[in-house]
Amino acid sequence: MTGHDSGQNLLTDHPALYEARFPAPERLAARWAEDCLRRHGAGPDLLDLGCGTGRDAAYLHGAGREVTGADLSEAMLAHAREHHPGPRYVRADLRGFDLGAGAFDSVVCMDSSLLYCHTNEELDGLFRSCARALRPGGLLVAEMRNGAYFLGRTDLLDAPRTDRFTWQGTAYRSVTTLRVDRTAQLLRRRRVWTADDGSPRREQRSAWRLLFPQELRHHLVAHGFDVLELHDGPGPRTGTPWREGDAPGTAADADRLHLVARRTA
Question: What is the value of pTM for the model shown?
Answer without folding.
Answer: 0.95
